[in-house]
Every structure is written in structure tokens, then in C-alpha cells.
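Hi there,

I know you've been waiting on this one. I reran it after we fixed the sequence typo, so this is the corrected version. Both the input and the resulting structure follow.
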Amino acid sequence: MAQGRVALRWARLVLGVVAVLVGLFLALRPFSSLAVLLIAAIVGLVAAGVAQLVTAAREGGALRWASGALYVAAAVVVVGWPGPTIRVLAVVVGVALVVDGVLDVLAGVRARSSARWNAWLGGAASVLLGLVALAWPDVTLLVVGLVFGLKVVMLGAREVVGAVTGRGARRPPRARARAGRWRLGGNVAVLVLALVVAAVSVGLNRGAHRPDAFYTPPDSVPAQPGELIRSERFEAEFVPEGVVAWRILFTTTRDDRTPAVASGLVLVPQSAVGEHARPADVITWAHGTTGASPGCAPSVLESGLSSGAMFVADEVAAHGWAMVATDYVGLGTQGPHAYLVGDATARSVLDSIRAAHQLDGVALADETVVWGHSQGGAAALWTGVLASSYAPELAIDGVAALAPAANLPALVHSLDGITGGELFAAYVAEGYTRTYPDVSFDEYVRPAARTLVREMAQRCLEDPGVLVSVLSSLVLDKPIWDGDPDRGALHDRLAQNVPSGPIAAPVLVGQGAADSLVLTSAQDAYVRARCDAGYAVDYRTYAGLNHVPLVEPGSPAIDELFVWTQQRFADEPATDTC
């Protein structure tokens, strides 16, 4: 008997120490890697289950037996699931926490004094966290890592204390009361933490941007692309003084020529509005990456044009120019958004110009220069390529592409080596697999990352919830791709979307030499290919400038862009650096 009690104490001590160490690892290092998180979660589930079973064997109680069996069964499910993923972990841990919480609440009905409150508080926290895990899968990383880890620590600590003191069910009443108070404090802390996690998750979800009724088209819209469906005056802090703004809804087409609806903004100097209006030359702005879901339209986001890297709208207005800025199809309006699909975004750019000319009481000149940055830089180049065939009536006097995402195979290949690159890779995966039937999401995105990628793709760069995407990306111990993404149908489609055709208007390409997203080597290769094909390019690089600083106020690239644009409106000869 004595040897059996000693062996049991050692077993409880080892189990408790393991549970404490695993729980601390989960709580303190939830973003180490997806593989390690899964292993730690499995060990934690087993440790929690065994701890509950040991307590049930020592103290009795059918509900404790059920709770222990539940956690062990959950671990078995995760182990046995083929290719366990965050979604699997979310469902298994979420269900286990909810059921265990319900069992705790039921146990509290029969308990007394502090034991009752311990059961109710712990059960409420468990149910709340389980619901968060089920409702928002990638927040499961936080739930599993932080709160479930602390729960495992508490269970392990109870076993360690019991093993060291050698006291179990026969502890004196005073000792049991003292232990109950410690447990009560721990459960209160866990419940508070659960409430914080739930509140943060609700707050982040409410912080997501959503378009209003303006972006929903009427049941019947014109079949002709470039037709203005509706417009309304638009007021926001980012609209410069002396400028009148509208948001517009207009018809366009997707890259497969199917009809679509897009939205955008039109900013016009006061001098170009009204009875005695003087026509204003037009800058057409193609914005950089803001996201891939409808709420990510610059006309929806609080920061407006600057969300897509347009920081000099006031300088545009000071030059007396109007600005037409499309949101692209799928941003603002119904998706999918064809992220980095050049033909589709160029159609939105060209049709926004057509629609802007239909605004009542607004005088816009025929002269138009296209500007774009990053995603929009590629869209600007594609606008130049497509203009003569898709919208020959428009006069495109120049195309300026700053840090354009033009060399798409090289860009996608390099994303796994860039901080935050997983987020842009998620936009690519979502955009290309929803645009092209021959590009399969399951073929290119590895199973363990699919839920995270889907969640990332639904968040705008300006959403508060993007912080969850950034933290989630840290848990990915390897790229989101299942093998090399630059292969098969995806490679073919990426190559197809390199803006490589002729552009009748003068072309300016500006590139920051310190760009960590659109690499200078990739841009050099793109420009070299255009030169080798016999096309004229004015290619300028800027030392020390990264991706976004390239287009910020005071950048030499911006100063030169305004001079270059004035030259285009004046019909001066363009420079060819090839």
C-alpha cells in the first residue's frame, strides 16, 4: 500500500510538472510555429484530461470523469485527423471548452461554498472561450495559447501541490478552504481574461469596414461599360480645401468580359464645377493594396485615398487637376476582387474615367494621365496597354507607375521572405483562385494554412483585425504555399498578368532602391524586358526609398512625378532611358 501511494505521488508530480510546463509554453509562446502549437495543444489536452481523471479517481464524481475523458478524446481527434489544421484545432478545442464548461456549471449546482463558485466561474470562462474559438478560427491561436495554456497550468499546479503535500481528499477543512480560495482567485483571473479575449474579438470584428447601401446597384443597370449608375456628394477629412468630391457607382466588365459594377471617387477643383466651370485636366489614380474584400475600398475606409498610398491629393488640387480614383470591382461592390489581375483592374480604371465625365455640372478635360502605385502601378500599366482597344475614345497622355507589381512571378516567389508577406500572399491566393477556375485553392495552399489564409484575405490592411492576421502569420513555420507557387496554372496566370503589351502613351516607372516588397531586381528585369521588346520607358530609381516612402510627400519621386505630368499635359517630348 505504501509503495502504491508513493508511486501515485510521483505520477501526480510528473504529470503536474509536465502540465505546468506545457501550459506555460502555450501561454507564453503561442506563435512559435503551427507544428509546435499543434503538438503542445495535443500534449496539453492529454495532460488536462489525465489530471481530471486522476482527480476523479481520487475524489470521485461522474462529471470529472466525463471532463477528463472529453479532453483525452479531443487529443485523439486532433492526432487522428488527416493533416490537422487551425480549423480542426478551433473546432476540437472550442467544443471541448464549451462542453467542459457546461459540465463545470452542472457540477457547481451540487457543490457548496467556494467550490460552487469555482465551478461556475471556471465553467463560464470555458464556455465563453470555446464560443470565441468556434466563431473566429484564427483567434483560436490566442485561445489555445493563452487561456487554455493557463487552464492547463492551473490543473498541473493542483497536481504538483497535491503530490508534494501528500494530501488529497482527506485534507483538513482549513487546508481545503485555503486551496479553494486559491482556486477561486485563479478562476476569477481566467474569467476576466476570457471576457477580455471575447471583448477584443467582438471589437475587432465590429471594427471591420463594410460598405453602405450606396454600393448596392439597382436591379437593372446599363449593359454598356462606363455608364454612371449613381453619384452623390462626398465629404471627408481627406478631401482638400477648394475641392468638390463625389463618390460614384458605374458599370464595367471583368477580365472575362462579364458585366460588373465598380465604385470610386471623383475630386474636382471648385473652378471646374458649375455654370462657368473651366475644364480640369484629369489624373486617374489606381490605388495600391488595401485588401481583397468589399470593405477595403478607399471610398469606404476612413483614411480614404491615403489607404491606397495617395498622400498628395492636396498637391494635385493645387495644380488645378481633377482626380478620378476607382475602387476596382470587388472593393466597395460585390466581389470577388481580382487582386493583381491586370486586365480586370484596368477596365475599372478606364470605365471610371468614362463615368466621371457624365457628372452633371462638372467640366473635365479630355487630357488624362494615369498614376498608380504597387498594385495600382501594375493596374496603371495595364490601363495603358488596354486603352486603345477597350476605350479608344479616351485620350491617355501618360502612364506613371510607381513601384508597380509588374513582375508577378518574381513578386509571388519572394513573398515568403518578406515580413508580412503572408498577408499579401493570402490576397493573391484568394484573388487568383476566385478569378480563375483552373487555379485551385487546395492545390496551392497547404492544408494547415488554409483557414488562416481565408481569414487573412477577408481583412483590410486598415481593419483593426489585421493585427490578428499579422500575429497569425507568425505561427506559420513555413510559407502558405503547398510547394512552389510559381508553377502550373498559377504560374501561367501570373505570367499572363505581367503588363507586357504596347503602350501608346509615354511611360514612367519609378522604383525605390530600398524597396523590400517590390524588389528592385525584379523591377529591373521587367523594365529590361520592355526595352528589349522595343518599348520606350523612362525608368528612374531612388536611393534609400522603401515601398511606401517612395510616394510620400517630400519624396523626390513625387516631385519628379508632378514635373513629368505637367510635361505630358503640355505635350512635351518624353524621355526614353532604354
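Quick highlight: The longest strand covers residues 243-253.

Best,
R. S.
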